[in-house]
Each structure stands twice: as structure tokens, then as C-alpha cells.
Design brief:
This protein has 13 helices and 18 strands. With 441 residues, it is of the alpha+beta class. A 6-stranded mixed sheet has the order 9-10-11-14-15-18, sandwiched between helices. Strands 1, 12, 13, 16 and 17 form a 5-stranded antiparallel sheet that branches. Strands 5-6-7 form a 3-stranded antiparallel sheet. The chain starts with 5 loop residues before the first helix and ends in an 8-residue tail after the last helix.
Length: 441
């Protein structure tokens, strides 16, 4: 759950495709870049120490971790290697909403594939048509047994995704995968890389207005809501991100009120803006809702969301979640459960819940290096006393697609949710309702 400047959020959070890593073996050590990395490390440490919600860092030896990182930077040949060490240092807090956001670069890397946890298996969830991954035979539903030197599981998935998509995106990815009914196989999938013109290159050039505007446009398309109406009985709303203004939320909810049931699909929704969450929750209750207590440096503070009153939606509600449903999406689902407002279906959620701020930082004189750090400024304790961080939401009804379903493009989870409220949709039809939108830039 985030509450921060919207412009900063759009520019800095979509880190997954913006950074190019070129670690060269045997390259000459650059002492100047080592010192730049140390300066970044110190600034990141100071920022977290001032802003982190728990001054004791939940028992983690925070300063010891950063002291170790300072020594490790001495083994790095370049700034890129040093930035990876900074990311490692912050990662030691094991906090989903506290992370190092590296500088923007002049190369955009598109992997051409997505993966996620389905139950206890890491599966390829989507493969972009005409990508090298598609040409090499990577398919939705393939189990990822190994990616580079990592073996993904529920406990390690978030860190692996951060390392290979944010800290060090690669020109090519080495997989060990297994398709349903087949033996494991090795494959290498090349990423598509777009290099910006020479005048945009370098750390200082990577955050130019030209690049930023293209990225914002692409992410707005990916994060746009979609919905399907099925007569008077059902509306299905796919909400990829909590990014809507109150007027936009009201418009979708006014459409929902024309139907007996709303299925709110929060699968793969990683959270977003706190105000967007506040307004959505208020649209489902005829009274103000106690969401829990925010726990911060100065103690606890109640978090209450106001109702939309007589304009709230009173029909049936089904919420769909999966392992990538995080932050605000998890809070919404858990509020629905606690208040017995509807049914939550799907897979156990991410367990990544915190209230964070993104703090832009920079180093340099003639050449400016811009980066940021996301810091958890409070944690949320739900009304039942539960902290969702590290735990997630257990759905009322657990529903998982099989590897065969994913390979065939079927969505049995959405089909089952519709059937639970008396509407028949085949898994094949459900799988075509909300096709994957790939980022364009």
C-alpha cells in the first residue's frame, strides 16, 4: 500500500524493464565508480535509518549488513557491481516495501515472458508472441525449475524477481523448465533491448523527459481497468492496479450496480495508491470501515475508510486473488473477509503489505546519478490482530489453474467464480476475456 507523489511513482516503480546490466569479467577496477557506489550506499543507509517505521529494524543487524556491503564494494570493478551490492544490503531487512531503486539507464530490456507462483510451483504465466522466448519454445504453464542460479519457491520468489528484473536485467536468461508430461529441458531466451539515442545515454541521460513520457504512457496502458458485462446478473472487473481517481472508481461502481454480482479480479494486482484503496473499499459498505491500525515510529494510528453511503454497491461480491496479488489488493481482500462482505477465491496472496514512501536521491557534480529508495513508514495490523506482511491472505475457496490450463489459455478460476453466482462461462471463454497486455514504449 503506497502513498506518495504520483509522478515519482510512475517514474521510479516500473523498474523491471528500465535497467541494463553488463557485468564484464576481468574488467579494470574503476576506483571513482567504487567511491560513487559507497556514497550511494551511505545515503541509502541514512535515509532508511531516518524513515523506517521500526528504529530497531525488527531485530535485523542493519548497520552490520551495511558495513559488510561497504567492504564488498571494494571487490566490485564498476558502479554497476556496486549498485548490486547496495541492493543486497537493503534486501537484508526482508521487508517487501523497503528496497533500493537503481538509476534509470539508456537501455530498456523486455524479457518477453512472465512467471509467478501457482500453489507451490513457479510457472511461466505468459509469453509474448514473436519474442525470442516464444521462438525457443517457452510456453505458459511450463514449470521453472531453475532461472540462472536460482530455484524459485514461495519463500524466494520475490527476491529472485527483484534481482533478475530490477537490479540486473539480462540480455539473455538461462532456464531449466518442464512442460506438463515432459522431462526437464534447458533453454536460453534473449531479451529485446532498445537503446536510446546517443544524446540520451548514461546515468544522467536515462531520466530525460522523452524516456519518462514513453514509459508512463506504456504503463498506463498496462494498468488500465477492463470489464465485461453479462446481462443483469454479472459484471467482471479486471483491476490491474490501484491507480484510479475517485471519479473513475465511482464510474465503474455505478456500472456494477446495474448487475446482481460483481467479480473483482485482483489477480496480479501489486497494489498502488492508498487513496484509490480507500475509495474502493468505501464503495462496498454502507458504514465507515475500520481497516486496522498503522504501526509506526510514533506508535499506532487507526486507519478508517469512509463509506460512499447510499451510493455504495449492495450486490454480491466475489474477489479473485493469486500469488502476485499484493499490498492494497491484499488489504481489500482481507477486509472483505473480515467484514463478511463477499467471497475471496484463488491462490494465497503475496504477503507484501506495508505503507511506503519513495524518496528520490542523487549523487554527483557534473554528472548526476539519480536513484531512489522505497521505505516502509508503517505496517498495518488488521482488526483481527493479523499482520499480512509475510503471511498473505488465504482465500475462502482455493482455486488454481493447472499447467495444462495455462498452456491452453484456459481460466478455470474465473469460470468457477462465475458459476458460483449462477453464470456459466467455459474456462476457454474466461481465458479470452482479459488477454495479456504487453508493455509498449
Amino acid at each position: 500500500m503506497l502513498k506518495e507523489n504520483r509522478a515519482i511513482r510512475f517514474i521510479l516503480l516500473p523498474a523491471a524493464i528500465v535497467f541494463a546490466a553488463t557485468y564484464l569479467s576481468g574488467q579494470k577496477v574503476n576506483k571513482v565508480e567504487q567511491e560513487q557506489a559507497r556514497a550511494i550506499l551511505r545515503q541509502v543507509q541514512e535515509t532508511i535509518e531516518k524513515r523506517y517505521y521500526d528504529p530497531s529494524f525488527r531485530g535485523v543487524d542493519f548497520r552490520g549488513r551495511f558495513a559488510s556491503a561497504d567492504k564488498q564494494i571494494g571487490d566490485q570493478a564498476s558502479l554497476l557491481g556496486g549498485l548490486a551490492v547496495v541492493a543486497w544490503a537493503v534486501e537484508g531487512l526482508n521487508d517487501s516495501h523497503t528496497s533500493f531503486i537503481p538509476p534509470l539507464r539508456n537501455v530498456i530490456v523486455d524479457k518477453g515472458w512472465e512467471m509467478g507462483m501457482v500453489g507451490e510451483k513457479c510457472l511461466i504465466s505468459a509469453v509474448q508472441p514473436d519474442s525470442d522466448a516464444s521462438k525457443k519454445g517457452l510456453h505458459p504453464g511450463d514449470e521453472v525449475l531453475k532461472l540462472e542460479n536460482y530455484q524459485p519457491n514461495r519463500a524466494t520468489f520475490a527476491k529472485i524477481e527483484y534481482r533478475v528484473s530490477v537490479v540486473a536485467p539480462l540480455a539473455e536468461y538461462h532456464f531449466q523448465v518442464a512442460s506438463p508430461g515432459h522431462a526437464a529441458r534447458e533453454l536460453v531466451a534473449k531479451s529485446r533491448q532498445e537503446v536510446f539515442p546517443a544524446e540520451l545515454r548514461g546515468f544522467s541521460g536515462g531520466d530525460t523527459l522523452h524516456q519518462i513520457l514513453r514509459l508512463i504512457k506504456g504503463y498506463r496502458i498496462v494498468g488500465k481497468s477492463r470489464f465485461v458485462e453479462m446481462g443483469d446478473k454479472l459484471m467482471i472487473w479486471k483491476l490491474p492496479e490501484f491507480n484510479l481517481q475517485p471519479a473513475d472508481t465511482n464510474r465503474y461502481m455505478d456500472s456494477a450496480k446495474k448487475h446482481e454480482t460483481l467479480i473483482l479480479d485482483l489477480r496480479d494486482n501489486r497494489g498502488g495508491d492508498e487513496e484509490a484503496l480507500r475509495w474502493l473499499v468505501g464503495n462496498f459498505f454502507d458504514r465507515d470501515i475500520n481497516v486496522g491500525d498503522k504501526i509506526g515510529r510514533t506508535g499506532k494510528e487507526p486507519l478508517r475508510f469512509p463509506t460512499r453511503g447510499k451510493n455504495a454497491f449492495t450486490g454480491k461480491l466475489v474477489v479473485l486473488v493469486n500469488s502476485k496479488s499484493a499490498s492494497a489488493a491484499e488489504i481489500f481482500a482481507r477486509v472483505v473477509q473480515i467484514e463478511k462482505r463477499g467471497t475471496v477465491m484463488g491462490d494465497q496472496t503475496s504477503g507484501a503489505v506495508g505503507r511506503a514512501e519513495i524518496i528520490p536521491l542523487q549523487q554527483g557534480g557534473m554528472t548526476i546519478i539519480q536513484y531512489a529508495v522505497e521505505v516502509t513508514v508503517s505496517r498495518l495490523r488488521m482488526p483481527d490482530g493479523q499482520d499480512l506482511e509475510g503471511n498473505g491472505v488465504v482465500p475462502d475457496t482455493k482455486l488454481l489453474p493447472t499447467q495444462e490450463d495455462m498452456a491452453a489459455g484456459r481460466d478455470p478460476v474465473l469460470a468457477a467464480a462465475a458459476l458460483s453466482v449462477g453464470v456459466t462461462i467455459s474456462p476457454e471463454e474466461a481465458g479470452k476475456m482479459f488477454p495479456v497486455i504487453w508493455l509498449t514504449h
